[in-house]
Design brief:
6-stranded mixed sheet; Metallo-beta-lactamase, Chain A; alpha/beta; 255 residues
């Protein structure tokens, strides 16, 4: 199930979403990223004035993952695991809404958030969002191959962390096996605009500038975009989408 939050930022295109994925498994629900949470709605100032001015998140209680999960007839306790593509505020803001969930994240990303090395890392991560001390499950080096991507770790054979470095130090995609066959790949912030992984690619100038500004390793980010283009071309059974493209969300939410 595809859940969303919204932005009304100044970048082009003006409508962006925070695309959150809810996965039903026999062991319980898995939430891929959390978007903004109820605490962000109650106290938006905790996000910081620079963040609020630059991103302009539409902080609405009904758009939090918790309220959308409840609207589907589940409770917060039904969410047993949260899997993070990375730990930027628009991906971790709802962690405290699911205090009993195990939180899976790449170990390198967790280290970057807990012990930031650069000014950018010190500014982008908000430790207040995980001040409730969740049960972290850190996924380190090594792993299996998945469609040519190496170092893939999993919660089983149906939910996988796929290294997609560049946007942040430990950024990952999350692949989910579909019951009817094939895969969904939540590519996080590997790209912001669906045209970027088309062949040939197209770009939104405003989003290109924003992504370069936020990137920790631009060369690797670009290389992983190319790998995503090749994956989309060569494997029609893998549906790729990112965190913020509204057109991708609308298409998948209606499927």
């Amino acid at each position: 199930m595809h859940l969303r939050g919204s932005f009304s930022g100044k970048v082009v295109p003006p409508r962006l979403v925070a695309h959150v994925l809810l996965v039903e498994r026999p062991e319980g629900l898995v939430l891929v990223d959390t978007g903004f949470g109820t605490r962000n709605v109650a106290k938006p100032g905790k996000l910081g004035r620079p963040y609020l001015l630059s991103h302009r998140p539409a902080l609405e209680l009904a758009e939090t993952a918790l309220r959308q999960v409840e609207a589907l007839g589940f409770t917060r306790e039904d969410v047993r695991d949260v899997v993070l593509t990375h730990m930027d505020p628009d991906h971790t803001g709802g962690l405290a809404d699911f205090p009993n969930a195990r939180v899976h994240v790449d170990a390198t990303e967790h280290l970057a958030a807990e012990k930031p090395r650069t000014l950018m890392e010190k500014q982008r991560y908000l430790a207040d969002q995980w001040a409730h001390h969740p049960e972290w499950v850190l996924h380190g080096s090594g792993g299996d191959d998945w469609f040519g991507f190496e170092g893939v770790k999993g919660l089983g054979d149906d939910v996988l962390l796929v290294p997609l470095r560049g946007h942040t130090r430990g950024h990952s995609g999350v692949a989910v096996r579909r019951p009817e066959g094939g895969w969904l790949l939540h590519a996080g912030d590997s790209y912001f605009w669906n045209g970027e992984v088309a062949t040939p690619p197209t770009h939104s100038k405003g989003l290109v500038a924003l992504q370069k500004l936020m990137s920790t390793d631009e060369k690797t980010r670009q290389q992983n975009q190319q790998r995503l283009r090749e994956l989309r071309t060569d494997h029609s059974d893998v549906t790729i989408f990112c965190s913020h493209d509204a057109a991708e969300f609308d298409r998948l939410a209606g499927s």
